[in-house]
Amino acid sequence: MMDEARAVLRNLYGYNDFRGEQTAAIEATLADRDALVIMPTGGGKSLCYQIPSLVREGVGIVVSPLIALMEDQVSALQQLGVEAEFLNSTLSLQQQSAISQRLRDGDIKLLYVAPERLLQPATLALLENLDIALFAVDEAHCVSQWGHDFRQDYLGLGQLKQRFPDIPLIALTATADGRTRAEIVERLQLHQPEVLIGGFDRPNIRYLVSPKQDARRQLLRFLQGHAGEAGIVYCMSRNKTESTSDWLSKQGYQALPYHAGLPAELRAHHQQRFLREEGIIIVATIAFGMGIDKPDVRFVAHLDLPKSVESYYQETGRAGRDGAPSEAWMVYGLQDVVRLGQMVDSSNLSDEMKRFERQKLNRLLGWCEVTRCRRKALLAYFDQEAPDECGNCDVCLSPPRTWDGTEAAQKLLSTIYRTGQRFGASHVIDVLLGKENEKVRQHGHETLSTFGIGQDRTASQWQSVLRQLLVQGYVFADAERFGALRLTEASRPLLRGDITLELREDVVEKVVRKGKSAVRRDIELSPADEVLWETLRECRKRLASEQNVPPYVIFHDSTLLQMVELKPTSKNEMADISGVGQAKLDRFGQAFIDAIEQSFMSMDASVSNEEME
Ligand code: ADP
Ligand code: ZN
After folding, report:
1. Radius of gyration over alpha carbons of the chain, in Å?
2. How far apart are CA 157 and CA 33, in angstroms?
């Protein structure tokens, strides 16, 4: 049966080899076993249940929490020529009964259904009389009451194994620590499941993190490397998403805000445009994301820090599901460090939870300041090994310089101490710089021995020192006293000179940005190929609007790029391109071959024009 599975992979999807844990997941399901599959976003979870559904007798039932996601998957499958449908509340009664009939006739190979619909007695009764290939539970972490995506409806899915004990059930998720994993197995009542954990690495995502100076200017520069590409910009507050998206629009970008305070209709409209059109930037709070299955999100930018490494990983994971080069960019500054800490401290969480949240935040801040490969540090957080250098993060691409910050730290700590540990960052830095302003005079701080001892550095350099001292725990910002800076236990040996301190030099935008778009970052296109690339994109856009599907459902960027490289001019050659399966070859192959030939002709024409002159 594995041979059949491989044939489906090649002929239907047009891919050459299985990735990572796909083989094991498919093998388990084909052998009637339950499985729990944990793979990062973009790892290829869908194939793990789609292929066994196609190879086995009967229909594969896929439980999926979000309607938009279901619809996308179904239209992608239909484009491949697979009999796939979904059942949800958007269908008319007539449409629903037509689908039920086709199910009874055995005409449907994959059925997507929301959990609440699946658990209705009528649906269960319908299923009892069908030949079922397997059950797949997508986003399986939604059964976990500990996780942040808990869905009541998911709890009822435990019934499936009771009612259909002999039918293999495969549960899939991108996020699961040990506890959630155990919870999934228990609540879905998986029977001796094959547990398959894929690597967390997302090699096509380039991680870029830098200190915040002029965030908007920095963002603009970053966006220059993403002309015409789709991306998400995350902000902390609703207001900021709106002001940022207005501002981006004025700069000529197609930007739309998204947050929980917008009317549901407008929100849905913005999401739809993001999915359907190319090159839309969504400026959002974290309300945006879950179930965004758009494979060609080329960047995720954070203007504000997320609250933990997990959140960061999840949010940035929405970039580059199609495997093509993508970027995760973030800026953070002293203010974020102070404010986020204060938010935790002044929340109404229990003391234990506060400590827990603080720890998580500190891990993230520490990660921001790393001086070794960012990817390795990120994977280490998830207990995964990685080579020392990835070559695809800001640290590897341009290693930060470090300097001996002991003396600077001592100056700063003394100033905090001598001003009575009652002031926030800006006053302390004013004293260091010897600024004689009103507040300084009011407290008589111009007479302190530390007044003006920091004139060898600029204000922003002192901010950098302070930020790093905060992150490393040498200074504490007291939320109950409006962010007043205090010394900690750890400050003492540093002040006494018993230990030394390495600091990172802040350099903004170290990574040279080549090219106008991320997806072509590593490939230099000739001017002629540039034209061809645009022609192929046009062709894709036309077909997509004819079919009323998003462009990526026709072909992914990576598939188009291969066409640019290999310039197939026959169906045989076209079939060799990854992502071109039989159905798409039949339906769209010729259109793209024509586009390629046409661009040859216009090239010849321009060459002969030149010869004529
Ligand atoms: P996930 O659900 O894990 O986020 P998907 O199943 O959507 O990921 O797959 C991500 C992308 O990778 C899809 O575009 C899919 O077609 C592609 N893909 C999956 N498996 C393979 C493979 N074996 N070879 C090439 N591309 C693959
Ligand atoms: Zn690296």
Report:
1. 28
2. 17
Which atom in ligand 1 lies closest to the alpha carbon of residue 17?
Answer: 23
pTM for the full predicted model: 0.82
**Mean confidence (pLDDT) of the chain:** 90
**Residues with a beta carbon under 5 angstroms from ion ligand 2:** 373, 375, 390, 393, 396
Q: Which structure tokens are listed for 333?
A: 């500054």
Domain 205-397 in CATH 3.90.1150.10? The answer is no
Tokens for 410, please give them: 């001592």
Dihedral over Cα of 234, 238, 239, 245: its sign: positive
- For domain 402-504, the CATH architecture is Orthogonal Bundle (1.10)
Domain coordinates in residue numbering, the chain = 2-197, 205-397, 402-504, 527-612
Is 2-197 in CATH node 3.40.50.1440? no
Atom 18 of ligand 1, residue of closest alpha carbon: 44
In sign, the C-alpha dihedral spanning 425, 431, 434, 435 is positive
**CATH no. for 527-612:** 1.10.150.80
What pLDDT does residue 604 have? 63
CA pair distance 264, 267, nearest whole angstrom: 5
The tens digit of pLDDT for each residue in 188-226 reads 999 999 999 988 899 999 999 999 989 999 999 999 989
Residue 393: enclosing H or E segment and its boundaries?
Answer: none
46, 296, 322, best to mutate for ligand 1 pocket (most atoms within 8 Å of CB): 46
Express each pLDDT in 440-483 by its tens digit.
999 999 999 999 999 999 999 999 999 999 989 999 988 788 78
Q: What is the pLDDT of residue 613?
A: 44
Structure confidence at residue 310 (pLDDT): 85
Ligand 1 first shell, C-beta below 6 A:
15, 18-19, 22, 39, 41-47, 295, 321-323, 556
Question: For residues 50 and 126, is the Cβ–Cβ distance under 8 A?
Answer: no
Closest ligand to residue 314's CA: 1
Mutate to test the pocket of ligand 1, among 47, 70, 138 (most ligand atoms within 8 A of CB): 47
- Domains 2-197 and 205-397 are alike in CATH topology: yes
Q: Considering only CA atoms, which of 202, 232, 206, 223 is closest in space to residue 326?
A: 206
